[in-house]
Amino acid sequence: MREFLLGLRLLFGAGRGNRVRFLLMAVGGSLGVCCLALVLTIPAILDAHDGRAAAREPQTTGKRTAATLVLERKDPHGSRPFTRVFVARDDRGTRTPPPGLSELPGPGEVFVSPRVRDLLRAEPDLKSLLPGRVRGLIGAPGLTDPDELYAYVGTTRAAIADDSDTGTLKSFGYDYAPTPAVDPSTLTNLRFALGTLVLLPLAVFLSVCARLSAASRARRLASLRLLGLSAKGTQRVNAAETVAAALLGALLGLGEYDLLNQVMSRTGLPALRWYPADGALSWSTVAVCLIGSPALAWFAGRAGARKAAAEPLAVRRTAVPKPPSAWGALVLVTGLGIVTGFCATGLTSHPASSTGLFAVLLAAGVLLTGIGLVLTLPLLSHLLARTVARNTRSLTLTLAMRRNEVEPGSTMRVVTGLVLLVFAASLAQGVLIEFKQVSKPSSPAQDYAIPLAGLTDRQQRALTQVPGVRAHGLTMDSWSDPRSDSIDGVSVVVATCAQFAQLVEHAEGCVDGKVMRLVNRNSIPNPWVRAGASFPFHLREGDRKVSLSLTVPSDAVGFTAYDPSAAGGDDLLVPPSALPPGARPESAQLILTSDSDPHRVRAVLDGIGAAAPTASVEPVGVNVDALQQIAVIETLLILGMVMGLVIGVAAFLVSVTDRAVERRAQVTAITLIGARARTLRAVQSTQVVLPLAIGLALALVAGKLAESSYLVSGGGAVFWDFAGIPVLACAALGVVAVATIGTLPLVGRRIDPELIRRD
Fold first, then answer.
1. What is the spatial distance between Cα 306 and Cα 241, in angstroms, rounded to a whole number?
2. Cα gap 753→759, rounded to integer Å
3. Which of 219-233, 506-520, 624-638 is predicted least confidently?
């Protein structure tokens, strides 16, 4: 306690510069703690989302008794699911309302989410999906997020009793969410990626903040040691200052996060919204931040004071330090050995999997590689500086490398954050590739089926012009007598040859203007489709019914359909000119097709929702909930990369500024003996850029190996992400350019000889 109080007295009594440094340490630590709190709270936000979804899920039984009936419908509105729960209330059944409602809706009563209320004002046609009068809003406990499209519709028993999906309501609430915000297996990979993206750079950044003005503090601690303070006491004095700064920074960081949560929960992120209470700080998060940050500062402070406590005379007289230990390289070699082993299995017929012990081994290999990068940089900087200084005749290189040779640890503090950023970015690419392999449809095309009966002519034209739609057509079925037991019939697609070629993977033999038989090479032909057979079709021309008879020709179009496809099961190709002018089929679907990229699919669904809000859309083979999951995961990964970028850049700026301030005495001495400002700027840039370039090159190699090991063990089709190499290389060159420019203003123009006397 005595050393701790002495450290606090030195903190507040050592001049304005020392107090400014303390505040900088606290502010820098607060930024790191804020990012840490955000990473720790993301799982809680997702859990709150799933908890509310589970609590409102209706528990039903298939027995049709005299009780409350419930029917759930989920349709896409644009790229977002729109859920409607129809409730036929019965006094003999349960009357307990779901979360967010005070009572079950009666016939003709509708309760909607706030977002649906806003949509009803902007799109009045949506009222046809919600028959009844809007009586109130669903409260926050009954919604997964503020933007969810959800509604409870009160109806009569007769209206839904005959539907096969209707069940008798028992109660509301399950132990698990029917559709989680992020699949549990994917959430594990997401946590691992966020940990690599944020937590590794964060640990380096907090260590950097704890080691600000390390040289000046080391000389002051050496003086205390020479005055008779014990070695452990000297370390405690230094730790007292760093712990006080870290504790203040942790408190500030928690306050910053609380403010950030209030702002972000109201503005939202792309595809991710939450209530402020979902992102509130938990006691576990507060404990981790208030204990973890000061604990890290304590160990960093003790490590920083170890030399001043053991060799105070060497510190005061600025003796040449010992070269860095090579033990850090052993950690890097171990990590690279593990990830390289996983990569090697990708060249065999039995690649490694990410299950059981292999998952733990892979995670350990990636973490050891990242930690090894940090520990190896001082050794690499020392070897590079000594080699260049011995062989160069350039004054700039000699000055730069000799300084790096005697202070390799300062290089680590400057460049490590940026090096880890490139390493983590490569791993994040692998996570995105792996997830897209699982979630992206195997077909290059995506079809959308929309019932034509619910569309006006204007809406039909607008849908065919939605951006991203590359082709369209109609599908319709022949008429069958409901009193007949015969099941013979055909389905046709109404399109030109050019449109049909875009709807399928391959087509040949098509002739425009003729009705032609379709032969799908990947399916069994319809036995009713024989040359000469005729089939009737019913159409409407205004209020008048029109009949059309089509005869199966002998000419055929051979085609291969996508899997899945809305046109793969059709039997005839009918040109639009074969239909009577102005006639519309009674039972038909409008088919649209686009690329299957998830971003394109979401854009097309949004365009369909804008053109025909009440249309029932079936994205063939696609789950709209899965699209939502893709968007959420991409948002979280981008958020992690942004936090990693902020932490890496902040660590660089703090370190390089502190480095320049610490070297003012040396810069002044060199200036007084005749060095020009241009030379000193070149020296400052070289001291940073050369070690940074070596570290980035190593990070690119290690990052690609770690990424490939992740892809190999994931079991996907892509093992080697060669397309990502140019992107990371350009990012590394950009980091070098920014670092070069950032070091130029750090050589002051004012010469203060007092710095030399004081030193």
1. 15
2. 10
3. 219-233
